[in-house]
Q: What sequence folds into this?
């Protein structure tokens, strides 16, 4: 079966809309046509709410079972045609779907969200409009998999905006022949598009129990939610000889995927939120399941919500960053979990991140973007090794950690109970990726740590006093 999908605001629907639909059905172009009114967030002047536009469409096509009106965009407040087409393709499995549009919209089709996806997965029926040449666009779109048909139906050019303006001015006689009679009478009865029109507000009180009797959650889109964890650590780098100065490596824990999607690539520990747990409980659970680590400091970082971030479905991710002293980990990591030392090389707005373990060494690249409000985000430029949008999550996490260690005591979650002053400074330097002047660092730490009457003897160096985080002593 061939199905035509006719989208638009239909504000209001008029006889040209009706003639177009009936002509396509009578000429056997389509077996069925689905009319798809835009959601209420669509930017149109004097846009009636979706229930009213759907009511008028149902009046205009009343009794014709070849035509159905779909409230998907209205109910889900969508303005993305590709998602509506995906919904209808799932509803009409095995049928051939065409999206119907005029040549004026066709020449600007490249501005539509994910237009290439639509051209590759669906078909278009373009209705010719006088004075608009679509030859160049047709030639450009030939490379895509979907079929593009062009029809000249010689339709009258009726404008919904003209009808609205006439109704607003009280000129009912000038538009009655442009509207289906039932639609015209309904508009007059309700006072649509007239200066004194106000949307009806439902004032009858109903209890939550009464409301829930008719509420159907399946009428609305649903998305999945995950918790993803960037677990950072700082650990010793082995010294070449006993006189070498201690060094610290800044590292992150990654997990190698052993199932699709992105099988064989590295990713952050993460998993889907269950209905009976909080996001934090989910983060703790998946960290144990994927790495075998428990009792880790976790802090919520950011919510990542790009539409295409997961190829399986619409997934929103609440990311956490965790901090641990890798030298004090007692449990054995899962076989597919591995710590990578990370270093950043920043050149102007481009940042290369190197991930290095004993056996694996790779790099990825991002671009820093600053919007007009000064908010920083990152765009993936080179990445052959990390799954999903994990490179962006990692970059965001690193920058957040670098910022937070300057004004909070968060870094002590990566330190042993007792440490030398030099060890603490090396941890800060490894995270920030730069040297810190000793006097400056001492001033910044003087109120945060307490000197102990103990020393650490370290190879060829003279003994160094040990310190503790003041917060640990305050807590007993």
A:
């Amino acid at each position: 079966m061939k199905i035509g999908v006719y989208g638009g605001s239909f504000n209001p629907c008029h006889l040209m809309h009706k003639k177009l639909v009936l002509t396509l059905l009578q000429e056997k172009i389509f077996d069925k046509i689905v009319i798809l009114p835009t959601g209420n967030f669509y930017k149109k002047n004097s846009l009636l709410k979706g229930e009213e536009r759907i009511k008028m469409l149902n009046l205009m096509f009343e009794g014709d079972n070849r035509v159905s009106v779909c409230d998907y965009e209205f109910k889900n407040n969508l303005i993305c045609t590709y998602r509506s087409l995906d919904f209808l393709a799932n509803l009409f499995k095995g049928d051939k779907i065409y999206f119907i549009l005029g040549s004026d919209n066709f020449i600007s089709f490249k501005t539509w969200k994910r237009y290439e996806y639509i051209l590759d997965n669906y078909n278009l029926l373009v209705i010719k409009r006088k004075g608009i040449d679509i030859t160049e666009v047709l030639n450009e779109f030939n490379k895509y998999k979907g079929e593009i048909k062009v029809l000249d139906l010689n339709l009258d050019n009726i404008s919904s905006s003209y009808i609205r303006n006439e109704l607003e001015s009280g000129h009912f006689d000038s538009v009655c022949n442009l509207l289906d009679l039932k639609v015209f009478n309904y508009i007059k009865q309700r006072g649509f598009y007239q200066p004194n029109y106000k949307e009806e507000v439902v004032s009858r009180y109903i209890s939550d129990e009464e409301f829930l009797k008719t509420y159907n959650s399946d009428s609305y889109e649903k998305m999945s939610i995950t918790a993803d964890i960037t677990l950072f650590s700082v650990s010793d780098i082995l010294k070449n000889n006993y006189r070498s100065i201690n060094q610290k490596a800044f590292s992150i824990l990654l997990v190698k995927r052993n199932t699709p999607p992105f099988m064989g690539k590295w990713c952050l520990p993460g998993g889907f939120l269950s209905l009976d747990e909080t996001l934090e409980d989910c983060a703790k659970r998946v960290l144990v399941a994927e790495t075998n680590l428990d009792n880790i400091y976790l802090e919520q970082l950011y919510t990542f919500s790009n539409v295409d971030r997961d190829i399986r479905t619409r997934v929103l991710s609440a990311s956490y960053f965790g901090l641990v002293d890798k030298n004090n980990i007692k449990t054995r990591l899962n076989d597919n979990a591995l710590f990578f030392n990370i270093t950043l090389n920043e050149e102007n707005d481009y940042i290369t991140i190197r991930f290095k373990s004993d056996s694996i060494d790779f790099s990825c690249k991002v671009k820093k973007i600053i919007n007009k409000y000064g908010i920083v985000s990152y765009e993936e430029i080179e990445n052959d090794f990390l799954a999903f949008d994990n490179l962006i999550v990692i970059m965001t996490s690193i920058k957040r950690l670098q910022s937070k260690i300057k004004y909070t005591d968060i870094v002590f979650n990566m330190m042993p109970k007792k440490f030398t002053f030099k060890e603490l400074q090396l941890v800060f330097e490894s995270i920030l990726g730069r040297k810190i002047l000793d006097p400056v660092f001492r001033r910044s730490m003087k109120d945060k740590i307490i000197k102990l009457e103990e020393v650490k003897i370290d190879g060829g160096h003279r003994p160094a006093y040990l310190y503790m985080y003041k917060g640990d002593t305050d807590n007993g």
In short: The CA atoms of residues 202 and 211 lie 13 Å apart.
